[in-house]
Amino acid sequence: MTRRGWHARLRAWFVGYWLLAASALAQAALSGMPAPVAIAPGVYAFIGDNGAVAPANHGIVANNGFIVGTDGVTVIDTGPSYRYGRAMLEAIRKVTPLPVRRVIITHQAPEFVFGAAAFRDQGVPILAHTRAAQLIRERCSICLANLRKTLGEDEMAGSRVTVPDETVNGTTELESGGRKLQLLHFGPASTPGDLAVLDTETGVLFAGGLVSNGRIPELRNEQIPGWLAALENLHALDLHTVVPGFGPPMPDDDILQTGVYLRELDAAVRQAYKNGVGLTEAMHTVQVPAFRTCKLYAIAQPQNVQRIYLQLEKQ
Question: Is the pTM of this model over 0.70?
Fold first, then answer.
């Protein structure tokens, strides 16, 4: 089958997939518990609600998942809280009796890391890029305090900063739980230590902070040129399904939409700065119209403009 034919079939499959997933996600929302959705044989994802962190969604806005191999399970990211991490463990046990062998953290954003303590308490090794582990150690106590303020002490009970005990410095291939995985690192991108995780058996990619779907990315620790290069490198791979950090799973061609937003945002801010538009005015007037309907646009767009503008002032 041609690449185009595969993508047509995949898009049709996603329609049916979301009809089935809607029921599971509704049940998860009622209980505050994640519900795993099968993406491919042995590959499961927990899909967040893709909005802003709030008490109503328990902070469950990002995606994470797990891969079941012949002798164990590999978890990709761990969600926003200890409670969520415990719920993940219970959900995994309902799918397979195999033990969790390893957790892989794709980057240090708070929506992805604070469930790790639940796995550490079970003696599960936690792996990340060296720079992500460093940022977790240095900065995540502030993120944890902010989440406690937003979600409340009860929701965040037991949550703590958990620094990965295994690290990699670049692209690495490993066998985990009897499954061959590629940990892809293309240099500083959405964060200094981004990893994307590719299950070579199915072609499913967990893209972490590199890709968003239906939600504009929040610029925090980014290097836009490196980020754009990373997206091009991912797009060049033979992928069947991409699980973005935020939003529904997607075919690989849609990876580049994140890059479209970044390019148009960067160009618009640079033009405003060149034209002498002040920071406050730029935050209110610089827009990327094609992405207005994406989640977080009203909140994150002015903040993204501010971040790039302040970087330009330092040059």
Answer: yes
205 pLDDT tier (thresholds 50, 70, 90): very high
Mean pLDDT of 251-260: 94
What DSSP string describes 35-93? --EEEETTEEEE----S---GGGTT--S-EEEEE-SS-EEEE---SSHHHHHHHHHHHH
Q: Alpha helices, DSSP H only, in 114-223?
A: 116-120, 130-151
Residue type at 28 in one-letter notation: A
Other C-beta atoms closer than 10 Å to the C-beta of 23 total 10
Answer yes or no: are the C-beta atoms of 110 and 148 closer than 8 Å.
Answer: no
Domains of the chain: 3-255 (3.60.15.10)
CA distance 24 to 35: 6
Q: Are the beta carbons of 100 and 179 closer than 8 angstroms?
A: no
CB 199 within 8 A of CB 65: no
pLDDT tens, position by position, 80-108: 999 999 999 999 999 999 999 999 999 99
Looking at residues 263-275, what average pLDDT do you find?
A: 98
Taking a C-beta distance cutoff of 8 angstroms, is the pair 25, 255 a contact? no
Place of tokens 């893709």: 50
Q: 3 Cβ partners below 8 Å, 6+ apart?
A: none
